[in-house]
Design a protein that fits this description.
Blueprint lengths: L8 E7 L5 E7 L3 E8 L7 E9 L9 H5 L25 E5 L6 E5 L2 E6 L11 E2 L10 E2 L4 H17 L5 H16 L4 E4 L9 E7 L2 E7 L9 H5 L9 E8 L3 H14 L2 H5 L8 E3 L8 E6 L20 E8 L1 H10 L1 H4 L3 H4 L4
Parallel strand pairs: 8-9, 13-16
Antiparallel strand pairs: 1-2, 2-3, 3-4, 5-6, 6-7, 7-8, 10-11, 11-12, 12-13, 14-15, 15-16
């Protein structure tokens, strides 16, 4: 195929079910690429790219001139698995399948995986996988050695997304309300905090022993991004969470002020493509006298209470408590470290 000056052409596109990510396939005169465009309308968009295949004869060299122009290059011959003369893709054969965290996706052609951009592709100069690549190429790694693993992941993800085509929300509410009523007494208020966006999320409020509780319902439906990179094979024990806030009745106005805060926090993992973990800190200015939020996972200590949750889609459900910190608390935490800071019973208490 002779090289031409054609403008890059988008031949397929799709959107993440949860995150603000557009997936698309683009072809130029040299190659096809699979892209994930993250927060495209924001002030700080970013893009992840993965080479799919070459359209023109492969070169033995890197095309530095093309890259300096900001154009997508062809893959050097030594990393190309297909015919070195090039190949074509049929746009009507393509489909995108999103992983459960919704920050990574697989590109299929006629039901066969041809490229994958996992959520962790942004790290360590790794782009993704292509069935038409071999070895660890500069723009894609070979998919074949890990094909069966990802094929299984995609089948599970497809089943996961089909679950949301059922009347699932009533069953989710019932399960959470049962656990929360056992933990904090009969609930007294229910607030939708999803802004009419998928997935549905709510904050359920109750009180017991002069303590007011607010605990979310539905946040755990979608696993948080980034957990696998930190926790490895144990990631399914950490990737689903609900948020909780508790204060004494004399500080009940705190709960009213925290409603919007909790709603915003509940969206952070999929907006920022990260996860909230035990010990995570967040700057805070919502209540006078407090400067930070410290997140405490109830499963990290027997001293931290939590409802008796059943498994969520086969995964452990973690309750992450929101603890407000003063400037003095933050200084002590910084000086002592998390474990030593939490040795003080006052600091490990989730009651604000």
């Amino acid at each position: 195929m002779e090289e031409s000056n054609m403008e890059p052409e988008i031949i397929f596109e799709d959107w993440s079910p949860v995150c603000d990510i557009q997936a698309f396939v683009e072809k130029n005169n040299r190659a096809y690429y699979f892209y994930l465009w993250i927060n495209p309308e924001s002030k700080e968009p970013s893009i992840r790219s993965c080479w799919i295949c070459n359209r023109a004869p492969s070169s033995d060299m890197f095309n530095a001139v093309v890259m300096k122009k900001g154009e997508a290059p062809s893959m050097p011959k030594e990393y190309v698995e297909h015919d070195h003369k090039g190949m074509e893709l049929a746009a009507d054969s393509l489909s995108v399948h999103w992983f459960e965290e919704s920050d990574g996706a697989a590109l299929l052609s006629d039901g066969k995986i041809i490229a994958i951009i996992p959520g962790y592709s942004k790290y360590e100069n790794f782009h993704g996988y292509s069935i038409y690549a071999k070895g660890k190429g500069p723009y894609a790694w070979g998919l074949l050695p890990v094909y069966e693993k990802f094929e299984k992941d995609i089948k599970e993800a497809d089943e996961f997304w089909r679950y949301f085509e059922t009347d699932y929300w009533a069953a989710v509410q019932e399960k959470h309300l049962h656990a929360l009523n056992e933990f904090m007494g009969r609930y007294e208020a229910y607030y939708a905090i999803d802004g009419d966006h998928f997935p549905p999320k709510a904050l359920i409020q109750g009180r017991k022993d002069h303590v007011v509780y607010g605990i979310t319902c539905g946040v755990s439906l979608i696993p948080m991004p980034g957990v696998e990179r930190v926790y490895g094979h144990a990631y399914k024990e950490h990737r689903r969470m609900e948020l909780g806030f508790a204060c004494r009745e004399e500080h009940e106005e705190y709960m009213n002020k925290m409603l919007g805060v909790i709603s915003g926090i509940a969206d952070i993992p999929w907006r920022k493509l990260t996860f909230i973990d035990h010990g995570t800190l967040l700057p805070f200015n919502g209540i006078e006298g407090y400067d930070y939020i410290l997140f405490l996972n109830a499963r990290s200590s027997e001293k931290i209470p939590m409802p008796e949750y059943k498994l969520c889609m086969g995964n452990t459900l973690n309750l992450i408590w929101i603890k407000l910190l003063t400037a003095a608390d933050y200084t002590a935490l910084s000086e002592k470290g998390l474990d030593a800071f939490l040795e003080d019973p006052a600091n490990i208490s989730i009651i604000n």
